[in-house]
Amino acid sequence: xxxxxxxxxxxxxxxxxxxxxxxxxxxxxxxxxxxxxxxxxxxxxxxxxxxxxxxxxxxxxxxxxxxxxxxxxxxxxxxxxxxxxxxxxxxxxxxxxxxxxxxxxxxxxxxxxxxxxxxxxxxxxxxxxxxxxxxxxxxxxxxxxxxxxxxxxxxxxxxxxxxxxxxxxxxxxxxxxxxxxxxxxxxxxxxxxxxxxxxxxxxxxxxxxxxxxxxxxxxxxxxxxxxxxxxxxxxxxxxxxxxxxxxxxxxxxxxxxxxxxxxxxxxxxxxxxxxxxxxxxxxxxxxxxxxxxxxxxxxxxxxxxxxxxxxxxxxxxxxxxxxxxxxxxxxxxxxxxxxxxxxxxxxxxxxxxxxxxxxxxxxxxx
Length: 366
What we know:
CATH superfamily of the largest domain: Spore Coat Polysaccharide Biosynthesis Protein SpsA, Chain A
EC number: 2.4.-.-
Keywords: Glycosyltransferase, Transferase
Pfam families: Glycos_transf_2 (PF00535)
Protein name: Glycosyltransferase
InterPro entries: Glyco_trans_2-like, Nucleotide-diphossugar_trans, TPR-like_helical_dom_sf, TPR_rpt
Radius of gyration: 24 Å
C-alpha cells in the first residue's frame, strides 16, 4: 500500500478548511498546510489536523507556494486540494481502494473535478486534474495564476471526484495579479493570454477579453481544450455585445480543433431556434444527443448539453413544428435526466393534454 502526503496552500479559509480536512484526513498519512498570510482562524484550525503548518510569504505566485508545499512532503505520493474542496463518502471509499491497489509504476492519478452541482448533487460542469503524483518524480507547478502541474510518465485516469464547494470568490485577486504583470511588461505565454482573458470575461470586460482570446488563438500554440473553450468564450463575449454574427463565427471555428462538442451543437441549436428555423435547430440539437462525453478528456464539460438540455430543446422544436409525439418523446428523455425540472414538467402536462385531446378527437371521428 502506498503512503500519501496531502499538500495544501491556504489563506483566510476558516469557513471551509475543517470541512475539507474532515473529508480526507483518514485517507492520507501526513498533512502539510502552507499558510500564505491568514489573518483569521485558519492556522488554528489547520493545527488540529496538520502534521505541519508552515508559513510562506505571499509573492503573487501560486506555483511558488504549491512547489514549496510539495517540497515538505515525505510520503510516496502527493495529493493536493484547495481548502474549499471536499470528497464525498462514495469517493472517499474509492480513494481508499486506490490507495490499497495503486501499482508502484503509476506516476500520476487524475481525478474528476466537479466545479458546480445541481440541487441533487449531480455535476453541472467538470474537468480533469492531476491530483495524486509520485513524490520521487519531483513534478513542478508552473504559472503565477491558474497554475498547472507538469507531469509525465504513466498516468491513471480514475473515476474519483473532488467536489469544489466555494463559500466565496476572490473576485479581483487573479485579475490584479495579471494586470500587475502586464504593467511590468511581462510577456504572456499562450496559457497566460487565455487565463487573463478568462478573468477579463468574468469581470464583464468583454472588449478586452476578445482582444486577449484572439491573441491566444493567433499564437496557434494553445492546448486544444483551451482553444475550444476560447471559441465558446468569444461567442459569449460577442453575444453580450449584441454581435450575434461574430458569435456564430466562433461557434463554427470550434469545429476546427476537434470533432463537434455537444456544448457548441446546443449553441447552434439555440441560434436557429431564436430565429424560428426549427428544422435547423432540431438538426443541431439532435446531433448533440448523438455524442458521447469522453470520459478521459481534460476539457471543461457542461453536463446539461450532453444529457437533458438538447432533448428539452428538441421538444420545443417539434412542438412548434406540430410534431407532438416527437416532442413528447424527447421531453420524456429529458425527464429521465432531470425529472424535477419545471420546464420538463410543464411540457409533460401540456403535451399529455394535447395528445389526449388528439386521441379523443380521432376516436370520435371514427
